[in-house]
Amino acid sequence: MLSLVGCHDAARDQEAAGDPGTGELVNLDDRIVEYAEQAGAHDPYTPPSAAQRERLARGVGQLLDGERDKAEESFASVGFQVTRLTDSGFGRRYDEVAARKPGAEARWGRLYVAADSGIRWSVQVPHPVADRGTESLGARLLEKTSGGALVLAGAHRTSGRGDAADVAHRTDSVFHTIVTELQKRGVPGLQLHGFAKGPDRPYDAILSTGAAQTAPEEAATLAARMQASGLRVCRGWADRCPLEGTTNVQGKSAEGHHATFIHAELAPAARAEDGKKAAQARTALSDLLFDWSNIPAGR
Predict the structure, then answer these.
(1) Interatomic CA distance for residues 235 and 15, integer angstroms
(2) Among residues 97, 150, 271, 292, which is most buried (max CB within 10 A)?
(3) pLDDT, one tens digit for every residue, the chain (299 residues)
(4) How many Cα atoms sit within 13 Å of 191 on the Cβ side?
(5) Of 144, 138, 149, which Cα lies nearest the Cα of 61?
(6) Number of Cβ within a 10 Å radius of residue 200
(7) What residues contact residue 93 under an 8 Å CB cut-off, 6+ apart?
(8) How many CB atoms lie within 10 A of CB 132?
(9) In what order do the strands lie in the sheet with 110-114?
(10) DSSP string of the chain?
(11) Which neighbouring-strand residues pair with 208?
């Protein structure tokens, strides 16, 4: 009874301070994957306008800066909302930024940010379903390590007209808007992609730094960890690799903002939910995020 009273008192204190407390109890992995899997090929998709992107950017910045009330107002002006969630698996709290209801806005994507600490890293999933398994991998990485954010596209890369929904190559998306706001604050990012193995792609992982021609220490360490675990790795900064992500717009933006960006292309076995190679890749990527989570703020 005393414990319950204490919890209720803490909840009231949080509400009085403008903190929504524990919020909704969910299986975070399931919630993220269920949303991602609604992305169907060739579905309708309309990018947000410049004005809508500006308001979303303002809201993301306010949320990252701890101004939740202002962020909620900015998001509401474009049909989005902030929902506090507690993950039933790990007990960590997150703020989910998502459309209020089904429709065009729901296909713009979502943002999940750790609510119990500052944001030290981001995982980015630009091609859910199309790069099968990246949505689940992104969710698992978010759950396993504290201090992170997950940026998730909401449409299949073939949705809409032309390449309108291929957010890794478009700057007029909610996905790019969110990633840019994180980069402005120096938050390093890991972007997950998938490829099919073939004679010209015999690797388990292809790592690169996007537009940058050199690799930060973290990228070299990630490659070494993957190689040591038994994965075959192609290093884009040292080898001739396919799929180096040099045209990736988030990579170009990261270079402009002097933020670390690692582009990780994974073979099917390395991004599956189960299996030896999937476990090896997941461990190496988790170690990278753990390293980032321990970098002091401002560095």
Answers:
(1) 49
(2) 271
(3) 333 334 344 444 444 456 788 899 999 999 999 999 999 888 899 999 999 999 999 999 999 999 999 999 999 999 999 999 999 999 999 999 999 999 999 999 999 999 999 999 999 999 999 999 999 999 999 999 999 999 999 999 999 999 999 999 999 999 999 999 999 999 999 999 999 999 989 999 999 998 777 889 999 999 999 999 999 999 999 999 999 999 999 999 999 999 999 999 999 999 999 999 999 999 999 999 999 999 866 55
(4) 27
(5) 149
(6) 7
(7) 22, 23, 84, 85, 86, 87, 114, 115, 116
(8) 14
(9) 24-26, 80-87, 93-99, 110-114, 148-152, 121-125, 189-194, 261-266, 205-208, 233-235
(10) -HHHHHHHHHHHHHHHTT--TT-EEE-HHHHHHHHHTT--TT----PPPHHHHHHHHHHHHHHHTT-HHHHHHHHHTTTEEEEEEEETTT--EEEEEEESSSSTGGGS-EEEEESSS---EEEEESSTTTTTTHHHHHHHHHHHSSSEEEEE--S-TT-SSTTTT-GGG-SSSHHHHHHHHHHHTT--EEEEEE---BTTB--SEEEE-TT-SS--HHHHHHHHHHHHHT--EEETTTS--S---TT-HHHHHHHHTT--EEEEEE-GGGSSSSSHHHHHHHHHHHHHHHHHHTSPTT-
(11) 263
Residue 258 in tokens: 């002097």
Tokens 């030896």: give the residue.
276
